[in-house]
Design goal:
Strand content: under 5%
Number of strands: 0
Structural class: mainly alpha
Order of helices and strands: HHHHHHHHHH
Helix content: over 70%
Number of helices: 10
Largest sheet: none
Mean pLDDT: 87
């Protein structure tokens, strides 16, 4: 347990540092309060200049709340899943801040939680679905983090500015396809569904700028809704796996 906690904390810290550097590097010059205009819906500097983009972040809070309710009704105390649900909620909060305040510091508040939840989920999925040790899962997660700039470069011709989220495809489809290949059981359908919905979400994120001339609201708000659904499905895919794994270990011992 201590090892899992230590590795998890280190990975969260590393992800935060990496994504913060990306956010600061991609922002234009100016102070922390410099107004930014990144999405089609924003037409001015006002707090509610992006109402659709702002309010659809409720989807992340709903996804997190659904996990909390399920855990309470089942009488479970799955701490890892609880933390993942909290991180999911933090994605919505950070994104809401950026789509209302739209400045340099809120951009970091938007990007960091998304990266942290992707790498944290990847770590949990490796331990629960592929039944890897915390040490091995931690090393693989750190490897994905280190390789993320290369993945972004490879994915950029296809995903453009959304290539930063390529690790999310590894955390969903990559793990899902690895489960049967490693002889850990059938392919987890919920995780495949999460990857499919996440892919659709990326498409709408990419289309926001190209379709802006014909659809003034943009499509970024659809990215929020689908991304929230994808995170909810991903969390459901690892729900209850900790208990079943513990039973398996006890039987084998």
């Amino acid at each position: 347990m201590r090892l899992i906690t230590t590795v998890g904390s280190a990975l969260l810290g590393a992800a935060s540092i990496a994504t913060t550097s990306f956010a600061m590097g991609s922002s234009p010059g100016g102070d922390w309060w410099t107004p930014l205009d990144h999405y089609c819906e924003r037409l001015g500097p006002g707090f509610w200049a992006e109402p659709f983009n702002a309010l659809t972040n409720l989807g992340f809070l709903i996804a997190a709340a659904a996990i909390f309710v399920r855990q309470r009704r089942a009488g479970r105390t799955d701490k890892q899943l609880f933390v993942l649900a909290l991180l999911t909620a933090s994605v919505g909060i950070g994104s809401f801040l950026f789509h209302t305040l739209a400045n340099r510091w809120s951009l970091i508040a938007d990007i960091v939680p998304i990266a942290v939840v992707i790498y944290s989920f990847f770590f949990v999925a490796l331990t629960r679905l592929l039944r890897l040790s915390a040490t091995v899962a931690g090393l693989l997660t750190a490897t994905l983090l280190v390789l993320s700039p290369m993945l972004e470069t490879i994915a950029k011709p296809l995903l453009g500015g959304s290539a930063t989220y390529a690790p999310g495809l590894i955390a969903t489809f990559g793990v899902a396809f690895a489960v049967p290949l490693a002889g850990r059981g059938p392919m987890p359908r919920l995780l495949v569904a999460a990857g499919t919905v996440f892919s659709a979400a990326l498409i709408f994120r990419i289309l926001d700028a190209p379709l802006c001339g014909s659809w003034s609201v943009g499509t970024h708000f659809i990215w929020h809704l689908l991304n929230a659904a994808a995170l909810g499905l991903a969390l459901l895919s690892v729900e209850g796996r900790a208990g079943s794994l513990s039973k398996l270990v006890q039987v084998q011992s």
